[in-house]
Amino acid sequence: MEPIHIIGAGLAGSEAAWQAARAGVPVILHEMRPAKGTFAHKTGDCAEMVCSNSFRSDDDVMNAVGQLHWEMRAAGGLIMTMADRHKLPAGGALAVDREAFSAAVTQALRAEPLIRIVPGEITELPGDGNWIVATGPLTSDSLAQAIRSVTGTDALAFFDAIAPIVHADTIDMTVAWEQSRYDKGETEAEQKAYINCPMTRDQYEAFIDALLAAEKTEFHEGETAGYFDGCLPIEVMAERGRETLRHGPMKPVGLTNAHKPDEKAYAVVQLRRDNALGTLYNIVGFQTKMKYGAQTQVFRMIPGLENASFARLGGIHRNSFLNSPTLLDDRMRLRQRPNLRFAGQVTGVEGYVESAAMGLLAGRMAAAQALGHDLPPPAPTTAMGALVNHITGGAEAKTFQPMNVNFGLFPPLDEMRSGRKGRKDRYPAYTQRAKDDFRAWLAAQ
């Protein structure tokens, strides 16, 4: 049997390889790292997480991301299996020890007899064979040019910002305190998964002034600063209004200062554990394009972080993706070259989970083709089906932008079309329908 070739061993490529091999099809997984690195990656491991260590909400009743988690687990997904094994306390979210997680994914792939990991960069798109392109937002220049030449169109781009990471022992815990918002979580560790740094109104106003005045990274010629709203740099949010951050990542609701319980903070900066040892914390929602020197000055204005030591400062990079509604069919194949499937962020999905989910679909679809049959996508009533439906035809091509999974992509429920129904009724109905339909999709294979 001819193998499936997968370009890129990120979350999408790793999941695609796993799914194809589990279906009994041999896989050759091509990865340019570590021979050729990127500015954001630090290792040569598969499924390295570079922006955050969070897979976001794990609530599969009230949250579309949590439903996507459920579907990936139901499909035997490698990414979710390893995320569950290496999870960290994060309230209602699923966060992982990123180094242990990536190492475990790499070990599992290397141990699978049907998967062969081949180092080296792929610079051209082959004209035949069964291929999946899962190169992510940091696709190499040569391969990006090859994709542009095949698609006949320029890839779109936005700028993906990376949040800074702080050494935990440099946080002043006489000022900060541990608490998840609304004490969410079943265990004490979950209920204390975040470190909170409170601000008075004067401190917040001074912070906003410094943020707006800080020196920022300049864009290169020909680049356009078109941001994805779910990953806006904090200074861009501040430019939209002085209160924007206080109603976004710095909102003080659901938190009580353990040191001053009768004093309500005007704003709160949250930090989330980034590794199992609890030695590193990332500043939640603080993606930034400030220059490094400015970052240390501005972030040390945050109460509790005056003497913070940073394991990594924030960064910003270009993120390329296809105009998938015009280029891909619902089997995730390139219309002009159906031997090529695309998966992950390059298709115009946003987020670790969404990228891995598209890898799961691409791997199963490519394996089905290799075994001589066709596999349709899950129903659009499922989280995975709603997402692939959006990127391959449901979105408006002229305004296509990266998309997280959300209930707005799900077809409306017939019984709820009339009248106003609250989330308490609507969301569980969406997720129950999704579970039923996803089980049916798995059973039909």
TrEMBL record:
Primary subcellular site in the record, as a coarse category: cytoplasm
UniProt keyword Iron-sulfur present: no
Pfam families: GIDA
Highest rank taxon of the organism: Bacteria
Listed EC numbers: 2.1.1.74
Keyword hit for Chaperone: no
Sites where the protein binds FAD: G8, A9, G10, L11, A12, G13
Residue ranges occupied by any MnmG N-terminal domain in the UniProt entry: 4-373
Coiled coil location: none
Entry-linked Gene3D superfamilies: FAD/NAD(P)-binding domain
UniProtKB keywords: Cytoplasm, FAD, Flavoprotein, Methyltransferase, NAD, NADP, Transferase, tRNA processing
Catalysed reactions, as listed in the record: uridine(54) in tRNA + (6R)-5,10-methylene-5,6,7,8-tetrahydrofolate + NADH + H(+) = 5-methyluridine(54) in tRNA + (6S)-5,6,7,8-tetrahydrofolate + NAD(+); uridine(54) in tRNA + (6R)-5,10-methylene-5,6,7,8-tetrahydrofolate + NADPH + H(+) = 5-methyluridine(54) in tRNA + (6S)-5,6,7,8-tetrahydrofolate + NADP(+)
Cofactor(s) needed by this chain: FAD
EC class of the enzyme, as a word: transferase
Annotated compartments: Cytoplasm
Family as reported in the entry's similarity comment: Belongs to the MnmG family. TrmFO subfamily.
Function according to Swiss-Prot or TrEMBL: NAD-binding protein involved in the addition of a carboxymethylaminomethyl (cmnm) group at the wobble position (U34) of certain tRNAs, forming tRNA-cmnm(5)s(2)U34.
Classification via HAMAP family: TrmFO
Protein name in the entry: Methylenetetrahydrofolate--tRNA-(uracil-5-)-methyltransferase TrmFO
Source species of the chain: Paracoccus aerius
